[in-house]
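agent: user wants the full assembly modeled, not chains individually. Plan: 1) parse entity lines 2) check alphabet per entity 3) run joint structure prediction 4) return tokens. Steps 1-2 passed, two entities, 798 residues total. Proceeding.
--- entities ---
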Amino acid sequence: MVSTLVPERAGPERAGPERAGRERRARPVSGAADGPPRTRRRRTVVAYLFLSPVLLFFAVFLVLPLGFAVLLSLSHWSGFALSGIEPVGLDNFAALFAAGSTFLVPVLTNTLLFALGTVALALGGSVLVASCIERLRFQGLWRTLYFLPIVTTVVAVGNVWKYMYEPGGLVNGVLNAAGAGSVAFLADPDTALPSVVVVQAWASLGSAILVLTAGLKSIPESYYEAASLDGAGQATVFWRITLPLLRPSLLFVCVTQFLTGLQSFALITVMTKGGPGDATNVAALEMYRRAFSYGDWGTASAAAFVLFVVVLLVTLAQLWVFRRKGEEA
Amino acid sequence: MTPDGRGAGTATGGAGGTGPSRRRFSRALAAALPASLLGAGCAAPGRGTGRPGDPVVLTLLSHYGGGESKEALRGPVDEWNATHDRVKVRTTAVEFDDLLTTLMVRQAAGQGADLVHPYCLWTGQLVRSGVLAPAPPEHAAEIRRGYGTAAVGAASAGGVVHGYPTELQTYALYYNRRLLREAGIDQPPRTWLELEEAAYRTTRRDGYGNTLVQGFGLSTYDDSTTVGQTLALLASAGGAFVAADGRGTAIDSAAGRAVFALERRLVDRGASVPGINMYQAFPAGRVAMVIGAGWWTGSLTSRMGAAYRDVGVAPVPVPEAGGRPGTLCTGFLLGVNAAGPHQREAWEFLRWLNAEKVGVGSGTGASTGASHKAVGAATRMSVLQASLGSLTGRADDMRVLLGADADPNLRPFLEALAYAVPEPNVPGAQRAKSLLRKGIEELWTGRRSVDEALRTVRRQVDQEVARSW
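--- prediction returned ---
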């Protein structure tokens, strides 16, 4: 049996310098371009055969669902019979932004506020905590403690915080002990979204702290020594040395937290189910309801593409901001 | 494609009224992507060859997935399988929260069950999507003859019966006798005025403003506690949520305004705290009154133990003394998949389960607390529902099954079958219900006034429901 992976000895020189040069331009990986056309074809076939499981995986789980989602976003479909898919053009997108529709306000605005609030709190909190941990003994223990919410299921986290927020719960107990009245955190539309944002930020603090701790450890000690010799105070060191050199880690945390925030679903489902009213309703929850509860797969798919565009724009904006400050993604 | 000819494209859908090019486009796209996406899963499990006389296996998808309900359904199904050689029934159960999704996904993949057991709220949606088959004339006549108006209405869409009503829930006023007595009230309220007075008198708070006892429980916990009780009050005031033609809302009316105003007053004056989970607060003795469905009695019995003796049930209060009673009725139906190959056999099984009467002996319907001594006959489904502490729409069966010494708290629910109105089940009813729930929550939280909330609900429901037609 002839192994098709063994490089053929026939090089470009044998086929003439002109052709060799052409092939080198066309295929930068010179080894793969070697050999007569039949051999190359055979290699290409074998290469695709090796790639086929992965390509098949992507086709089944990425390309087809994506194509189906595009089709649905331009159709009306109740979700039951495939023969009932009825093309409606851009009607679904128009319906999402029609007067009186709740998708833009409050659903999409809630989504952005939720993501923004989560990123702000998680980023600020994780920088603070990571910096403090750097000065403590038993750093591993502290990092583990802060990482615990990550390994806890969202359902458990949501339910525990839900009870803590209730009128007779821990948070109100603390407020009462301090002489303040009770607050209906999750039942009041004004406080419901911020309350859930706090939980999401708390739950995502651990992973951010891990990344930032790694970032802090990569900053050379010599910079701090030099700053100390120059008489720089702690605040100056933090603003002029720590924060600028943490920028790659901050970029990573910022982008990933924003993506998570924009797609948040489970925590809100557990804690408020989007209520009261639409006070905590976000895009992912709205999409799920439209598709699986209301049988309106068309607008659900259209909403998914709108959210995709929002996520893309937000991510590009973050990359642009960080690049302007000299940081590569 | 299945051996019996059922495939992804055999079910009828809602496409229609479009031009030839649109139809071609629809067919081409519907055939290409979804078929390739779902092709691998389209082969239905072996359920008989479909040839006359050959064995048939009917599949039944329900939400009786665990505990008592699973066992209760197994009884009659095992009995059918033991007594019928050719047609067998196989049950598949999921949690209620997953029922619609499972129904949807299996139907789209060409693996829909022969018998489906959906929530009546979805009837219009399922009929419009070509899932539920209309009942054959003899079955429709049997259903109209054997069941109450509300039950028939819940299992119908556009006046056409689509299945046998199974478990039926009417709404009534649960009250805590001890809390009412402590407030100097001996009888449950019969009018809205009495309801308000009792609610204010029973409400208790601590020094920090935390509510210790809610006079009247309004809860945002779920659709049942938010929308169900509002629609029950609306029915008691003679109002309706959806217009008679099913194409819009009718809640922006004098009755709707009166219900919204009542609820808003109760919240504003502190007698109701919507953020509290009613299913925990009432059994804990922290709510004096709440409107709820009949199934809750079984849950309260097991959860409250001896304290259950404080629980009483009365009809939903009416706006004024002497007014006609009214309440809401929700439920489930057992229907036949329109894409199923064995529809005749499926309907026959449903008739056997829901219409054929069997003798009711001692011990039937254990969980209702009744003791039966060969007192009469009832359908197998009625026996099943009574054993779960629930009702069917067959009032005569229920009277037999509940007996003289049954839990008296079940009586008001049974009596309500005579005057309850079915939950609207037009296409888009689930969406309309969600929009109403949001409107109610915005009213309770003070985000909108009574008039604003009514106007918003009307506008949103009309707009969204119109899309479903």
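agent: reporting back. Confidence is low (pLDDT under 50) at residues 1-21, 28-32 of chain A. The first strand of chain A starts at residue 75 and ends at 76.
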